[in-house]
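Render Aminoglycoside phosphotransferase (APT) family kinase protein in 3D.
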Amino acid sequence: MVPRPADFEPWLNRLPGFEDARVGSITAVDGGASNVTCRVELLSGTVRRVCLRLQRERGIFEPYDVIREGRVIAALAATDVPVPRLLGMEPSADPLGAPFIVLEWVDAPHMGLAPDADFDAFTRMVARIHAVDWQAAGLAFLGVPASVPEALERDLAAVEARMPGFGCAGEPLLEDALSRLRATVPAEGRLALCQGDINVFNYLFRGGEVVRVVDWEQARISDPRVDVGQLLALSHLKGAPFGPAERMPFAVRYRAAAGADPGDLRWFRAMWLWQLAVIHYGWRRYGNGSTPWYSLEQASELLLMALAELD
């Protein structure tokens, strides 16, 4: 899906400041399950590199909408959440075969590679995202649920809609888990901007601080505990012992960074373990030959433990 320089260059030349730019090469970079990310090397001009994000057709977070992601990034530019500068958007698939956005290229490693990465700085940034005045920022286009239960039901429905395409619709554990999650949706909470994927790979570091937050295709208005639950679930899959959710290191740090108790986290941990089990199926189908770094058996065992807490 990597476009040819000759196809991208005429479009780039229409952007202010890039009228005389010459594209030397376009190279795909590892973007995980996100929209397809490419590094574009330029042969002329003061800017010598930009980021090209093309809309992915199939994947674990489908359906993809790169223009929606671009609108989120544009809206966040006026907030204190550091995001890449949006240079342009193309909603038509005609130029390159898929819609795309163009962003500044940020020379900073993600948290998994940065030698000066700081877990507290990462946690503070997650809390900062959740503190964004999303209405003032113009993010209501993401869809505003009438209540927290409605937001969480939407989140469940989005994952459920992927299951047939992933080949796991009808799997007893996943179906039972979905029924249990729907029966125990939290009635209380608050609505906030959620990134939807606070994987550490989406946080770029320099000087011990987060300098950019990337990958906003899953952004939505929901309960911020959805994001917190993801880190808890991932921590268990990476070996953290299963125990009280509120005592896990990220939960403790998040509480301090947010300046308030987020509330009961058990449902959100269970929801993400269910989602990660679903993702395992999708990854095997659309992972371009790669295999998930965690096993389905591991995710299933943890999911059963998390569901037992909801009784």
